[in-house]
Amino acid sequence: MRGRTTRKYSRMDWLTANLVNRALTIQITTGPKDALRFLRTNGIELATIKRVLACPNQRRPHG
Q: What confidence tens digit (pLDDT) does each residue in 3-47 have?
């Protein structure tokens, strides 16, 4: 049972990491407003959005 929980959380981290990667690309190409909109549309919390868009080099490890 514990293995399932770990995989579930790992997958969520992986999905969030991919969304953040895409948002950072959007931020570079079309701007921070589009990146913010993308992350909000995908259910990322506002505190997380502010952190990753303001300080992309301080990303947390995932996986």
A: 444 444 445 678 988 999 999 999 999 999 999 999 999 999 999
- 8 A C-beta contact, residue 62 and residue 17: yes
Residue burial 25-37, b: 16+ Cβ < 10 Å; e: rest: ebbeeeeeeebbe
- The single residue listed with the structure tokens 């981290």 is 13
The torsion of the CA quartet 21, 23, 24, 30, rounded to 10 degrees, works out to 140
DSSP 29: H
> What number of other Cβ atoms are within 10 A of residue 62's Cβ?
14
Residues 6+ apart with CB under 8 A from 51: 58
